[in-house]
Write a structure and sequence with these properties.
It is a single chain. About 70% of the residues lie in helices and about 0% in strands. The termini are far apart. The longest helix has about 45 residues. The chain has a domain of about 110 residues. By secondary structure, the protein is mainly α.
């Protein structure tokens, strides 16, 4: 195989990379176009004016693009903030962890707080959730009074 003008190899594998490149170029163009739509709306243009300028078929299409672009920008900003906060938490944990594992209770409390904050930030408490106490329904015979008496008796025995 020989190298082509772009420094890539000619042959069977090159076609796949061209497709990937083309796909990423389209994403970049779509993002740029979406940002232009947002910019136009922020400048006070109507959705129809932006549609006409950007070559969209309708103002509804521009509205959709603007909403998607804003959501994407917000998601990226949130991800950036989350990454920054995680780095800060890592730094704090690194600083207190040696003392915590050596028996310093205040340092151990700090490490646990950092771990709890990381868990909240990553929403780990939402993942999986606790298993139910029973997996199968329990059938109870007798009257309501007998059931309540058995419950009361069970509480006083434990």
């Amino acid at each position: 195989m020989s190298e082509d003008a772009d420094g890539g190899s000619e042959g069977a594998g090159n076609d796949g990379s061209r497709r990937k490149s083309s796909k990423s170029q389209k994403k970049v163009q779509a993002r740029r176009r979406g940002l232009e739509c947002v910019k136009g709306i922020l400048q006070g243009k109507t959705y129809q004016e932006v549609a006409d300028e950007q070559g969209y078929s309708s103002r509804g299409a521009v509205h959709r693009v603007v909403q998607q672009t804003l959501a994407q920008e917000q998601a990226e900003t949130i991800d950036e903030l989350r990454t920054l906060e995680l780095a800060r938490l890592d730094s704090l944990q690194r600083a207190f962890y040696p003392a915590a594992t050596a028996g310093d209770l205040k340092a151990a409390e700090m490490v646990l707080k950092v771990m709890a904050q990381r868990s909240r930030l990553l929403q780990l408490e939402r993942v999986g959730g606790p298993e139910p106490v029973t997996e199968h329904p329990v059938l109870v015979g007798g009257t309501k009074e007998q059931f309540l008496a058995a419950l009361h008796e069970g509480r006083t025995q434990s």
